[in-house]
Design brief:
The chain is an alpha+beta fold. A hairpin with a 5-residue loop joins strand 4 and strand 5. The chain has one domain: Roll (C8orf32 fold). The strands form two sheets. Strands 3, 4, 5, 6, 7, 8 and 9 form a seven-stranded antiparallel beta sheet that branches. A two-stranded parallel ribbon has the order 1-2. The radius of gyration is 17 Å and the shape is globular. Helices cover about 30% and strands about 15% of the residues. It contains seven helices and nine strands, in the order H-H-E-H-E-H-E-E-E-E-H-E-E-H-E-H.
């Protein structure tokens, strides 16, 4: 595990928040919390970009809120608070909270309404390998495989400590905008989209297991 030592007092977390994050224990424990303790946010009242503190208070999260909370929990567990953005066409984008194991391999935690767009074990040697593990499961309502690019490097949330991203009561649109605007790397070669087939019905249904 690659860890970063920062003064916990600078994060502004409450004792209850620290206990909760520490109780998750491992990245897999963080993923279980995202899956089991937070409802998926369908944004009935309009778009939101909650901090981890506000996500815990409201008990709901979409992919960005889940990634931010995941990054906060991973930070308390000794990892850097890193995000990665997945950019599709004709579909919603997705955010992952990254973690890196002691051998340098990458894994991820994520909140998603699709079964295949969530946790990844830390077995991927490069970010591209990790990203490509999401390719088959990344599809839209028409069954198109839609993933086309990913942020070219890990997005370190420590740069937003100055606005208290872990505890802010204000929306974190600045983080969302910066993540989307970051340099991205293409997934497919030029013309590669023309080779893609639509997802078969069985795989389509499998990805929607657990939707709520």
């Amino acid at each position: 595990m690659t860890s970063i030592r920062l003064p916990v007092s600078s994060w502004g977390l409450s004792r209850a928040e620290l206990r909760l994050y520490r109780s998750m224990g491992t990245p897999a424990g963080v993923q279980r919390f995202l899956d089991d303790q937070l409802r998926y946010d369908l944004e009935p009242d309009g778009p939101r970009c909650r901090s981890p503190r506000m996500t815990l208070a409201d008990g709901v999260a979409h992919c960005m809120g889940g990634a931010l909370l995941g990054a906060a929990a991973l930070r308390v567990l000794g990892h850097k608070p890193l995000l990665l953005h997945l950019k599709p066409v004709r579909d919603d984008s997705h955010a992952l909270a990254l973690f890196r194991w002691k051998d340098g391999s990458w894994g991820a935690v994520a909140k998603s309404n699709y079964a295949g767009l969530r946790y990844r074990e830390p077995v991927y040697r490069t970010l591209r390998e990790l990203v490509m593990s999401y390719f088959e499961q990344y599809y839209n309502a028409a069954g198109e495989r839609t993933l086309r690019a990913y942020s070219a490097r890990p997005f370190d949330l420590a740069r937003f400590d100055r606005i208290g991203w872990m505890i802010s009561e204000e929306p974190l649109w600045a983080i969302s905008s910066a993540l989307v605007a970051a340099s991205h790397t293409r997934v497919l070669p030029p013309g590669g989209e023309r080779r893609l087939s639509r997802l078969d019905e069985r795989s389509y249904r499998a990805g929607q297991v657990g939707m709520r």
